[in-house]
Task: inverse folding
């Protein structure tokens, strides 16, 4: 699942370097997809299938010098990324799971982007998201 999510995020035209890591943003500017600890099963059906979620955090590390315009630009990226995800949801454009027993129905931003951490020259931001899907038996 994480590889499909990463490949999907790589299609976002907003990414500056076109590289997304898993569980690691790196020492400088970069992006990462990090799985979040949630119960994947939301509902179980009588036939044994289920409604599930795959929750993840999209993390980005951006230059940060304390300049107000730089902060506004970083915040704008978070907003634009959230809007891009919403557009993909409306268009029904979801990751390809290559699994005929799983069917993604929605992508949701579960919280708006926020400042996650600070370093001397960089700031880390995070947006939490989830894919909803059905899993057949």
Result:
């Amino acid at each position: 699942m994480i590889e499909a999510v990463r490949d999907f995020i790589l299609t976002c035209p907003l990414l500056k370097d076109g590289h997304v890591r898993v569980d690691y943003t790196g020492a400088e500017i970069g992006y990462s997809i990090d799985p979040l600890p949630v119960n994947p099963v939301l509902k179980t059906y009588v036939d044994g299938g289920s409604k599930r979620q795959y929750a993840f955090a999209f993390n980005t590390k951006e230059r940060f010098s304390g300049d107000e315009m730089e902060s506004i630009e970083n915040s704008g990226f978070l907003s634009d990324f959230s809007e891009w995800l919403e557009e993909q949801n409306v268009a029904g454009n979801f990751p390809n799971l290559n699994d005929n027993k799983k069917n993604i129905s929605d992508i949701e931003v579960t919280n708006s982007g926020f400042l996650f951490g600070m370093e001397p020259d960089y700031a880390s931001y995070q947006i939490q998201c989830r894919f909803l899907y059905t899993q057949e038996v």
In short: The chain is about 25% helix and 40% strand.
